[in-house]
PhzF family phenazine biosynthesis protein (Actinoplanes subglobosus), 253 residues
Amino acid sequence: MLTVVDACVREGSGGSPTLVADDDAAFSDADRRAIVRAGGASHGAFLDPPVVRFFTGTAELRNCGHGTLAAQAVLLDRDHARERRAVQRTGGRDVQVTATRLPGGGIEVWFDQGPVTVTEPDSDLGGVLAALGVGDPGRIVVASPGTPRLLIPVADPSVVAPDFARLAAECRERGLLGCLVYRLDGPVALARLFAPVIGVDEDVANANSSGCLAAHLGRRIEVWQGDALGRPSAVFADSDGHTTRVGGVVRLR
């Protein structure tokens, strides 16, 4: 069974189109990547509960936040239940997940992100900033829930216009998944996640990076993404500096 859902919708619309499919032992990884491309989504979740694997059209991912939300929403819907509490196994790690039907429609899903490390960059980032077209940002940190990415505060994320080929090369050289550029606006962060190294120039909703930002700030935050792509999204993330939970609302089509 294969379906596409909208993960991390904002006020009931937008969100990231995410493919959810039952896995099959006969599939090769090339088959899974081809299924994601054919489905017209940037990411796909392949279900063999409790195992879930994630792919883009070009690579397998160690984990995927909004893919986890999509997968668990579909599993709840199949159960015809109001709530689902379960353990998802992804990348060799067990993830606690909770999915709940909302009265007005949609399914809200939360997962425990696990440890997030936040460190100072250990190399010059001039090439990355040049590829992003960003000058004189605020304090940059490296955040990793398993795969490192940069968190870069900027004055206005909407005007950032990366050279994606150069950015992919710079990130690949440093072992980075990508870059989250953001601006804080009270309890909301306006953000964009660029990850051309995994075949996703810009992500509509990157839940793991949102959790990284909450871990960096040590508080709850709502991260708005996707506006530049015409798919407004919202990710909820809450951290006390030690543990981080990430959530969002999934709309079934």
Remarks:
- The domain at 117-245 is CATH 3.10.310.10 (Diaminopimelate Epimerase; Chain A, domain 1).
- The chain has a mean pLDDT of 95.
- Residues 113 and 128 are 26 Å apart (CA to CA).
- The two ends are 14 Å apart (CA to CA).
